[in-house]
């Protein structure tokens, strides 16, 4: 734990009544001033984690630390955290100004100060001049900005955002992704952002926690998680991937689809059964003779930026290819990829074991 | 063609309103201009502004106000607790059930309970406080009235509390609001429509209560309702009775407007 840690979960478990636990032994650390994303499918416990941090609910087991102090029983209104709710939860009987000023009024701040701060917050979210609007007169995107303004105006140490963009249309969502990221940089406040959209997570975060079924499957920077998914779930959830069974003959040599390939992974048992991940965009279409793999084109979809081409090799493995070039359905084509494009996953490896192995063989490769 | 057939369906409704709402109102207004001998006069209106009737009006409003106030004080927390229970619809039904029983039956039941040898006095004796006159007091009148009106107050408040988005309470809490602040600034304002509806449903009939004033309050409480009854059934002065009714109707309209729904951003 560094001094920069602001929130720490120590083996937190959350149960409701006699149901199976919603969160199982979750531990993680949040550092000051970064943009974090909790990413996972619906029902995996993302909102529960936010509610635990905000103080709307208490952990069944384990401790939550805030600035080094256990805050398990500190009520929500005494925490230096503000939330942007999934449905915004703006007060319908108050106008924009009154909504944003809500927290400041509770703090008994002077009227002039409140007015100045609300104006400033509105400017931050590009809603200058909207003070006297009623909430029902605002569009979805505007409401969302009001909700953000209502949170940032209190200058909390951490802002929690529960799928704040999921209700917006695609264009507005992309726009808000930029704006949110920019806002976080300008304010320097820690953001904990929840989403089930992997592209959103990759685009915005300093650090991502991939959650599944009440557990953190993997945490790391977007590139870490994209390039080195720890298991099938993460690989599948973060973007499209080709996952095929293989055998690790020895370090830096792997066998799959009936062939031997050079790769950059190591630290396995000899002849260990593994899973191979190759991203569709790392596969290039070549003439059959030039390819490392020989596949038959099965179907093709135009996705705008690229074609999504589905192929099968002679072993029956499906290979998804993203290519700007068009293929012909039924053709035999070659697929080329670099050794770096092959990512090898060990069965049932935990994040700690994965990190340890990575360290070990990286050290080894430096010695060579 | 279509508007015609729609108008056709409206006929029974219009007939009903005309026969049972508009005609009686006009009749009341008409009778208020005649004295007991059947001569046209404005005397009734002058009489209404004499101390006797003004005091009666004031007393009506005062008791209706007390009944509404106590109903509200009991109904709000009750409705709030109801929304927190597991089987809230069942509990609600149990609370509403007594309102289906005839008012007079309930009044007679209270005559028994509050009587000199009734359950209430036995209970007080057992506590060692000693029996006392309960019936024919302000207390018994207000107690029984509140008991009778309570379900009508609970229902609209329960509905508005039940519709309240619980995330709003989290939001208030999140922004630093204590439970009290959350109640004052979020829960109460957002359930105000329910409170107003409840007050309207209780206050207006409470203004013209008359059977209870006789049975439970022993005619010690004279309200406008009692006065109307007396004029029509006892003194046969329909003119004066109608005049009081006219003022009562004006008061009711006034209250309806006053507690009318305020339209503001409720989603
Ligand atoms: N108050 C509650 N009582 C019982 N179960 C709950 C409650 N809140 C959430 N859950 C359960 O916890 C699980 C995780 O919920 P949540 O954290 O909201 O998931 P997410 O936000 O990732 O979609 C779900 O299976 C949900 O049914
Ligand atoms: Mg959620």
- CATH fold-level label of the largest domain in chain A: Rossmann fold
How many alpha or pi helices of chain A?
9
Give the biggest beta sheet of chain B: none
Low-confidence parts of chain A, pLDDT < 50 over ≥5 residues?
A: none
Reading the helices and strands of chain A in chain order gives EEEHEEEHHHEHEHEEHHEEEEEEEEEEH
The shape of chain A, in one word, is: globular
How large a portion of the residues of chain A is in β-strands, by DSSP E? 25-35%
Rg of chain B over CA atoms, rounded to whole Å, is: 23 Å
Mean pLDDT of chain A: 92
Top CATH class of chain B = Mainly Alpha
Sheet with the most strands: spatial strand order of chain A: 6-7-8-3-9-10
What is the CATH-assigned architecture of the largest domain in chain A?
A: 3-Layer(aba) Sandwich
The CATH superfamily of chain B is: MetI-like
Q: Level of helix content of chain A?
A: 25-40%
- Give the biggest beta sheet of chain A: 6 strands, mixed
Characterize the structure shown.
The complex is a heterodimer of chains A (368) and B (267). Chain A is α+β, with helices and mostly antiparallel strands and 368 residues long. Chain A has three domains: 5-227, 3-Layer(aba) Sandwich (Rossmann fold), CATH 3.40.50; 240-279 and 340-367, no CATH class; 284-336, OB fold (Dihydrolipoamide Acetyltransferase, E2P). Chain A contains nine helices and 20 strands. In chain A, helix 2 runs parallel beside helix 4. The longest helix of chain A is centred in the middle third of the chain and has 18 residues, at 170-187. Chain A is globular, with a radius of gyration of 24 Å. In chain A, 39% of the residues are buried. Chain B is mostly helical. Chain B has one domain: MetI-like (MetI-like fold, Orthogonal Bundle). Helices cover 75% and strands 0% of the residues of chain B. Chain B has helices at 2-31, 43-48, 51-84, 88-96, 103-114, 119-127, 138-163, 166-174, 179-207, 211-215, 224-234, 238-258. Chain B is globular and about 70 Å long. The two termini of chain B are 37 Å apart. The model of chain B has no long low-confidence stretch (mean pLDDT 89). The complex binds adenosine-5'-diphosphate and magnesium ion. Residues 16, 22, 40, 42-48 of chain A line the site of adenosine-5'-diphosphate (ADP).
């Amino acid at each position: 734990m560094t001094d920069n840690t602001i929130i720490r979960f120590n083996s937190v478990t959350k149960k409701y009544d006699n149901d199976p636990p919603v969160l199982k032994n979750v531990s993680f650390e949040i550092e000051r001033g970064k943009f974090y994303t909790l990413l996972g499918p619906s029902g995996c416990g993302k909102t529960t984690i936010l509610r635990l941090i905000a103080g709307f609910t208490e952990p069944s087991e384990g401790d939550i630390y805030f600035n080094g102090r256990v805050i398990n029983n500190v009520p929500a209104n005494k925490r230096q955290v503000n939330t942007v709710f999934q449905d915004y939860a703006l007060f319908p009987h108050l106008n924009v100004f009154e909504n944003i000023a809500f927290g400041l009024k509770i703090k008994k701040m002077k009227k002039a100060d409140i007015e100045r701060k609300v104006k400033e917050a509105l400017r931050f979210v590009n809603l200058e001049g909207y003070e006297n609007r009623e909430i029902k007169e605002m569009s979805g995107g505007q409401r969302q900005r009001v909700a953000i303004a209502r949170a940032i105006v209190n200058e909390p140490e951490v802002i929690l955002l529960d799928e704040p963009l999921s209700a917006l249309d695609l264009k507005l969502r992309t726009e808000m992704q930029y704006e949110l990221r920019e806002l976080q940089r300008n304010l320097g406040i820690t953001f904990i952002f929840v989403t089930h959209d992997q592209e959103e997570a990759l685009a915005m975060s300093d650090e991502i926690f991939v959650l599944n079924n009440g557990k953190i499957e993997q945490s790391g920077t977007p590139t870490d998680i994209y390039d080195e998914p720890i298991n099938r779930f993460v690989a599948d959830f973060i973007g499209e991937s080709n996952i095929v069974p293989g055998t690790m003959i020895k370090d830096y040599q792997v066998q799959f689809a009936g062939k031997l390939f050079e790769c950059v992974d190591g630290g396995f048992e000899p002849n260990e059964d593994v899973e191979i991940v190759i991203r569709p965009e790392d596969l290039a279409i070549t003439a059959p003779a030039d390819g490392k793999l020989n596949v038959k084109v099965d179907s093709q979809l135009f996705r705008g930026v690229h074609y999504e081409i589905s192929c099968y090799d002679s072993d029956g493995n499906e290979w998804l290819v993203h290519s700007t070039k068009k293929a012909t359905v039924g053709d035999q084509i070659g697929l080329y990829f670099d050794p770096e494009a092959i990512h090898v996953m060990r069965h049932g490896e935990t994040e700690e074991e994965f990190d340890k192995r990575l360290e070990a063989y990286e050290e080894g490769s430096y010695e060579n | 063609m279509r508007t015609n057939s729609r108008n056709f369906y409206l006929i029974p409704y219009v007939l009903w309103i005309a026969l049972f709402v508009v005609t009686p109102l006009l009749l009341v207004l008409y009778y208020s201009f005649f004295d007991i001998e059947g001569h046209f006069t404005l005397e009734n209106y002058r009489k209404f502004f004499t101390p006797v009737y003004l005091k009666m009006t004031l007393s009506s409003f005062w008791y209706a106000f007390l009944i509404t106030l106590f109903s509200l004080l009991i109904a709000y927390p009750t409705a709030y607790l109801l929304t927190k229970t597991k089987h809230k619809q069942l509990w609600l039904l149990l609370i509403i059930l007594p309102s289906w029983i005839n008012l007079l039956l309930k009044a007679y039941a209270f005559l028994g309970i509050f009587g000199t040898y009734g359950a209430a006095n036995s209970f007080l004796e057992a506590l060692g406080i000693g029996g006392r006159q309960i019936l024919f007091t302000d207390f018994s009148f207000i107690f029984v009235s509140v008991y009778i009106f309570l379900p009508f107050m609970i229902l609209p408040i329960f509905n508005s509390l039940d519709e309240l988005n619980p995330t709003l309470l989290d939001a208030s809490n999140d922004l630093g609001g204590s439970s009290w602040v959350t109640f004052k600034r979020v829960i109460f304002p957002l359930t105000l429509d329910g409170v107003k509806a409840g007050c309207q449903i209780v206050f207006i009939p409470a203004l013209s209560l008359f059977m209870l004033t006789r049975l439970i309050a022993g005619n010690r409480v004279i309200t406008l309702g009692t006065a109307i009854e007396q004029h029509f059934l006892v003194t046969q002065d329909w003119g004066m009775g109608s005049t009081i009714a006219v003022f009562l109707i004006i008061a009711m309209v006034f209250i309806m407007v006053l507690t009318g729904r305020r339209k503001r951003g409720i989603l």
